[in-house]
Amino acid sequence: MKTLIAYSTRYGTSEKVAHLLNDRLPGEVHVQDVVEQPDVDWPGVDHVIVGSSIRMGKIQDEMTAWLHINESELLNRPLGLYLCAGTPTASERERELETAYGDALRAHAYFVEVVGNGYDFERMGFLDKAIVRMMAKQTVSSLHLDEAMLDELVESAQASLRTRSENP
What strand order describes the sheet that includes 142-145? Predict the structure, then answer.
């Protein structure tokens, strides 16, 4: 079974999560940045995990387009969805997940959750640094991942893979 981890990232947090998941998942796993490489060899993919960062309440336009173009393929495979966001409240987290991933994808997915956030000041421009300093009260690079959520995503993915291999 082959798992595709498709992600988009602005400052690297979603990419870091994708590679952490790659290290934890069994079988053949392919990690792909959909901004740099949007095309997918769908016949070779059995399972998909999609992750994105969110900025100013939106995921990257390229990820939005990729999700729209590939929605039917995503709905025909086990699907996990994660988001990297610095949202402090449950209602804000839910709103950002709803904005990032459409109703059909969220309803189909076995996992839909925010797994943490990060700020990489080395990759940020002046304006983004100013916004992060003001809004998130961060002045240095940081990475805050929810290990329990990552473990839950991995366990859910493994259960989905087992179920799929038992019932092809």
Answer: 28-33, 2-8, 47-53, 79-84, 111-119, 142-145
